[in-house]
Amino acid sequence: LVGSIGDRSYTANWTPITYNITYDLDGGSVATANPTSYNVTTNTFTLNNPTKTGYTFDGWTGSNGSTPQTTVTINQGSIGDLSYTAHWTIITYDITYDLDGGSVATANPTTYDVETPTFTLTNPTKTGYTFAGWTGSNGNTPQTTVTITQGSIGDRSYTAHWTLNTYNIAYDLDGGSVAM
Q: Which pLDDT belongs to residue 153?
């Protein structure tokens, strides 16, 4: 001001800018939420990786670049809005069968994934036997209908069980007799 006299002291006050962090998890979820904002004074932190049933997490892309990385760290002193996208690879699960001498006219699948449409196993046949059911991944009680629903996960194994057929024999002795 005009006419002011004397020494003066001024202190600058600063408020850190808050930056946003956005995530596209592509159907995944994070057990411990990642921060949605930070500022230049925020301590260094590493993003928590998401999970997605039936998929393997390949990594994050976005503010860290176009190559997926499973470890993304935001260092103290960083600035600017950040954005990250999760990338996934679908897991293929194996299905094994023990037909115990039987055969299947239409082959059952040997693999599936979480996106495979619901399907029912084709039952095997065995000459002289009746199919009693499958056991294994479906439990210890034989079941003649085993369905794997879309969204299922995990390797599976099935064993065919059989009941021996009993046949009756009828004789026409045409008036004769059987010696015992």
A: 98
Concatenated DSSP letters of the chain: -TT--S---------PPPEEEEEE-TT-B-SSPPPSEE-TTSPPEEPPPPB-TTEEEEEEEETTEEEEES--EE-TT--S-EEEEEEEEEPPEEEEEE-TT-B-SSPPPSEE-TTSPPEEPPPPB-TTEEEEEEEETTEEEEES--EE-TT--S-EEEEEEEEE---------TT-----
What lies within 8 Å, CB to CB, of 36 at 6+ separation is 20, 21, 22
Indicate whether 41 pLDDT > 90: yes
Taking the model in full, what pTM does it have?
Answer: 0.81
